[in-house]
Amino acid sequence: MNPNPLDQLRDVHLPPPPGWWPPAPGWWLLAALIIILMVAGALRWRRRRVQTRHRRMAIQALSTLEAQNSEQWLTDLFNLVRRLCRAEDPLSPVLSEGNDQLLDRLDEHSKGALGRDLERHGTSLASLRQNVYQATPQTLSEPQRRVLVQHVRRYLKQTGGKGQC
Length: 165
Known about the structure:
Layout: H1 25-51, H2 53-67, H3 73-88, H4 99-109, H5 113-120, H6 125-132, H7 142-158
Helix pairs in contact: 2-3, 2-7, 4-6
């Protein structure tokens, strides 16, 4: 008997599996896109951080001012807002406004909530406007000061980086 010649054949030779390196061109493009997006994100974050530095410092100074209790407290509060606006926009209309106009601006920004909150705590915007220009201004109560600081802090945070200061 003759042996079957097919039994002498070996199995089909398979090529080795493809290696993971070097990756296909699509993976190179994806890696380049990810790197570009990461660099752009880091640059944008850094630029935003530099732009908001004045605002963060003003909010920190507001916290310091909040703990003080002096006759010029209200004037110091408005001067803090003006310093921030000068740092962000030297041509800001806030710089030429009086304290009473700045108080109106804060009330307008809060859609009237500042006036309502102050009235709830026993004073009004009109009495604050007069108080600002008194030789010996009347000191504000702790709740009234807290209301003013809260609205100034909100103003500082919400007008940031929009040229609205």
